[in-house]
Amino acid sequence: MAPPDKADDGAAPQQTGDDGELKMPKITVLRLEVSTAMKDEAVTHFAEYLQANPNAIEKDISTDMKKYFDQRHGPTWQCIVGKAFGCSVAYDTQFLLFFRADQHYVLLFKSAE
């Protein structure tokens, strides 16, 4: 069991650089079925949200990503954020992005109707 100060509460990492600034998460795209512009928008929004909310938990991150994409690109987007998960989803072709941000995985997709 982890010590109380090292407990895993699902919050995003709070890494800081040598200058005390919050570091951007290292992004690795694992599956890309959206335009490059949409991928860049998702990654940028994700990083900006983490900078503005360094103690955000996974549920908050996924809720924000879903709402942001619903507003910007129409309904119905879904987002799953976690360190480990399995899934089987139906999605609209050309609307799926799966990436890793440090130790968190993010699956963002538009639901098939």
UniProtKB/TrEMBL annotation:
Is Cytoplasm found in the keyword set? yes
Pfam family name, one: Dynein_light
What family is this?
A: Belongs to the dynein light chain family.
Q: Write down any Gene Ontology CC term.
A: cytoplasmic dynein complex
Gene Ontology biological process terms, A to Z: microtubule-based process
GO MF entries = dynein intermediate chain binding
Q: Which UniProt keywords apply?
A: Cytoplasm, Cytoskeleton, Dynein, Microtubule, Motor protein
Report the locations given in the UniProt record: Cytoplasm, Cytoskeleton
Locate the coiled-coil region(s) and give their ranges: none
Q: Tell me, in one coarse class, where this protein mainly resides.
A: cytoplasm
**Name of this protein:** Dynein light chain
Q: Where are the stretches annotated Disordered? A: 1-24
